[in-house]
């Protein structure tokens, strides 16, 4: 493992632990447990053209309703488990989401993005206005930080499009009550280093 000790921050800012992902894992597991029997019931009703009702629209709803609800619950639940379980198992440098060091911003894997390489940043606030918020947790921070860098970086979250290079740092599943102040401090630190930070809002279902 590469030694980044000289670049590391004295105070670790956003370090992922299993506790950050347990609420999502529990919610996803519940969706799967509810979704499977509903899906099976729905398939049974559709195959057997049940229940028989005088109103055709009502018959279709009561027949296909469990099938649709079960499928949606199963899809969302499976997605939640597939994304949250690996995240909960991260350790060491891989558990780092964001640190601020003397030489720059430290991201997952212990990789350092030097201050001089950062052209700007976007502080993203994820929002969800859906009536059925299956995986969404309003108590989470639901934030991300997108760094605009001068050159492509071989780090997690890096992307390049139309000659523009970014590194996305996902901070969605931290508890807002504990980490909102830290996020504000991160933004303030970036600005104090001469980096322009703009605010943005994006809709997100999961």
What does the model show?
There is one protein chain. The strands form two sheets. Strands 7-8-6-5-9 form a five-stranded mixed beta sheet. A four-stranded antiparallel beta sheet has the order 1-2-3-4. Helix 1 (18-47) packs antiparallel against helix 2. The chain has 206 residues and is an alpha+beta fold. The chain has three helices and nine strands. The protein has two domains: 20-88; 94-203, PH-domain like (Roll), CATH 2.30.29. The chain is elongated.
What structural class do the secondary elements suggest? alpha+beta
Radius of gyration: 22 Å
Q: What's the total count of β strands?
A: 9
Helix content: 25-40%
> Overall pLDDT, averaged?
89
Number of domains: 2
- According to CATH, the fold-level topology of the largest domain is PH-domain like
Assembly state of the chains shown:
single chain
The CATH first-level class of the largest domain comes to: Mainly Beta
| Unreliable runs | 1-11
State the separation between the terminal residues, measured CA to CA. Answer: 33 Å
H and E string: EHHEEEEEEEHE
Strand count, sense and barrel status of the largest sheet are:
5 strands, mixed
């Amino acid at each position: 493992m590469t030694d980044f000790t000289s670049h590391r921050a004295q105070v670790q800012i956003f370090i992922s632990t299993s506790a950050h992902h347990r609420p999502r894992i529990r919610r996803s597991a519940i969706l799967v447990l509810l979704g499977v029997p509903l899906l099976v019931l729905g398939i049974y009703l559709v195959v057997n053209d049940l229940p028989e009702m005088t109103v055709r629209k009502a018959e279709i709803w009561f027949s296909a309703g469990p099938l649709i609800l079960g499928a949606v619950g199963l899809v969302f639940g499976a997605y939640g488990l597939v994304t949250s379980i690996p995240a909960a198992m991260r350790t060491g440098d891989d558990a780092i989401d964001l640190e601020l060091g003397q030489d720059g911003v430290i991201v997952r894997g212990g990789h350092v993005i030097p201050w001089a390489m950062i052209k700007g940043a976007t502080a993203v606030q994820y929002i969800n206005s859906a009536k059925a918020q299956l995986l969404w947790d309003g108590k989470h921070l639901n934030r991300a930080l997108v760094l605009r860098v001068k050159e492509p970086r071989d780090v997690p979250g890096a992307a390049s499009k139309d000659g523009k290079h970014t590194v996305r740092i996902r901070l969605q599943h931290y508890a807002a009550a504990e980490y909102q102040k830290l996020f504000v401090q991160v933004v303030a630190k970036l600005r104090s280093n001469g980096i322009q930070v703009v605010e943005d809002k994006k809709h997100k279902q999961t």
